[in-house]
TrEMBL record:
One of its GO terms (molecular function) is FMN binding. Keywords: Flavoprotein, FMN. The lineage of its organism: Bacteria, Pseudomonadati, Pseudomonadota, Gammaproteobacteria, Vibrionales. It comes from the Bacteria. The keyword Flavoprotein applies. This is Flavoprotein WrbA. Its cofactor is FMN. GO terms for cellular component: membrane.
Length: 190
């Protein structure tokens, strides 16, 4: 039975989507783990959708682990992602997410654009659901050398210099996906 990791994101200009895909590759590098890439619907129906499938509450309930990402919006998670979490009360009441591992990731247009506060804002509903939050440990060498994105709070991207992820950002996103998947696999099979 495969360990299913939900990689859930909202992306406005593609940077958070690129991080989601890098995390998914990290997840799938772990034997027995499968990444399920999902997004949330736009609140503004005049905006174009990302092309990925929208998440369902049942997919969130069934996942063995969760990676969640959002661009920085005034130091907070994006409204479409927050709107999705506002609909998860049934999972909170039933305790379906308790003890599942989770991590967060984000992107901003500047180095000091609010990545850490956005990561922490995404952690709040996860903590209320009883999930176990994972970051990136300093044993990852790129965390010491990055001049773009990547924090102990989670993977990140600074989009001011390039729309492409830097080598450090890619390595940290992949490492976070691997760590999440390995932990979820151990929890599921113990």
């Amino acid at each position: 039975m495969a360990c299913q990791i939900l990689v859930l994101y909202y992306s406005r200009h593609g940077s958070t989507q690129r991080l989601a895909r890098a995390i998914a590759r990290g997840v799938e590098s772990v034997d027995g783990c499968e990444a399920i890439l999902r997004t949330v619907p736009e609140l503004d129906t005049s905006r174009e959708e990302s092309g990925d499938i929208n998440v369902s509450i049942s997919e969130l309930k069934a996942c063995d682990g969760l990676a969640m990402g959002s661009p920085v919006w005034f130091g907070n998670m994006a409204a479409p992602l927050k709107h999705f979490w506002d609909q998860t009360t049934s999972l909170w009441l039933s305790g379906d997410l308790i003890d599942k591992p989770a991590c967060v990731f984000t992107s901003s247009s500047s180095m000091h654009g609010g990545q850490e506060s956005t990561a922490m804002s995404m952690m709040l509903p996860l903590l209320h659901h009883g999930m176990m939050i994972m970051g990136i440990p300093y044993s990852e060498p790129q965390l010491h050398s990055t001049t773009t994105g990547g924090t102990p709070y989670g993977a990140s991207h600074v989009a001011n210099s390039s729309v492409q992820l830097s080598d450090d950002e890619l390595a940290l996103a992949s490492a976070l996906g691997q760590r999440l998947a390995s932990t979820a696999y151990k929890l599921k099979h113990n």
